[in-house]
Predict the 3D structure of the following.
Amino acid sequence: MKRHATAVWNGTGKEGTGHLSSQSTVLDKTQYSFSSRFENGVGTNPEELVAAAHAGCFSMKLAFVLNAAGFTADQIETRCDITLENGAITESHLSVKASVPAISKEQFDAAVADAKANCPISKSLNTNITHEATLA
C-alpha cells in the first residue's frame, strides 16, 4: 500500500505561503504558512498533521491489540501533543482515554504499551514517545 500527499510552497520561509493536498482529498489545497506553524495563524502545519497521524494510528492499533486480547472498546479517544524545539520534534505525548468493558487496568495498560510501541507512526518517529492512559 502506498499513500501520497503534495506540498506546494511559494516565496520565502517566513513571508511565503503554501498548501497541502492529500490523495483522499481530505486535505485539498489546505493553507499552511510560517504564521500557522510558529504563531496562531489560520491553516495547518506539519506538526499538527504528525499529531493527528500519531493519534489516529495509535487509536486504531490499540483497537487491534484489544481485539486480539478478546476485548472491544466502546470508544478510544487519543490526543497527541507534538513538541517542536530547536528545529526538531523532541516529543510525542499520547493521552488516551478509553472505555473497554470487562478489561482490568493491568490488561489495558499492557495493550496501551503494545500499541504505543508498535503503531506504524510510533515506529517512524525518531523522538521520545510518552503516554498517559485512563480507563473510563
Summary: The two ends are 35 Å apart (CA to CA). Helices lie at 34-38, 46-68, 105-118, 120-124.
